[in-house]
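=== Structural record ===
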Amino acid sequence: MDLDRQPAMDPGSAFEQTCWNILRRRYPPEKLAYIPAEMGGDCGIEGYSTDGIAYQCYADRDSLTLRHRTDKQKGKLYDDTVKLKKYATRLEGVLNGLIIQHYFLMVPEYHAADLISYAHDRAAAVRGYGLSFISDNFAIHIKTLQDYPAELRAALKDGAAKASIPPPSIDIAEVVPFQVEKPQLVTVIEGKLASIRSRNPNANLDALRDRFIHAFLQKEEVMAALREWPDTWEAIERRRQLREEYLELESELSPDDPKSRILVLVKTYQAELEANVAGLREPDAQRVAMGQVGDWLMRCPLDFRAAS
């Protein structure tokens, strides 16, 4: 490819916003920080994630050729890595002890191998600054949106890249109508929860039943909202199906106390969702986990062996 002759395409005006929408889908809110320039940013990074990655987005719109674009990308990389040293004190306060191991320059496209080599050179220069927040193995990588295929695919489908849904609006009072409309499900959950009483005679099973029904209704509302985030919704469904397969076997074999099994199931299923479903926020993972356990209590496959 002749970089001097190949025209550079205009990436549009929303590249930075798209980058951060995708990153917000990839990380839960507490693990990603954006630093807008008007709030003291422009220190060489636009934000960072708590796994030690600094991010800088760059999309020039006036390059005529790919060679010109590559030269500007190198210039951007130089200017911003110099800022890491210039604004070191400010960055130390922002990062608050976090060590940066990787620096991602996110661009719409790049076409020159020497840009990657130049990134290696600039990483070596930054390591030589002796900055407290830079790892000894600090590296710079050139990234495009195509490096985040699942997040990008979902963003293209639904026009956004942040799995942000409103909290469920289900009131505890809605449990009573559910009990009237679905008495067979209430009968099933009451029968399963009754097994708790043999080991916990003072357990308030009515309150526990209502709590799980309420959690189930909240989960249904969360999942309905996540229909607008098809990749996330499908990923949750895949985890549910896998967990159910194991749960059926566990219900046949486990002699554990029902109360303990329920508590462990909620905790471990929430952890599974957080680890395997990109873009699912922790509060939503908790609501889905608690509500799904309520669902399993009202139907199969969660059941408890009779105590010996």
Notes: Strands lie at 32-34, 47-49, 53-57, 100-106, 134-143. The CA atoms of residues 5 and 65 lie 6 Å apart.
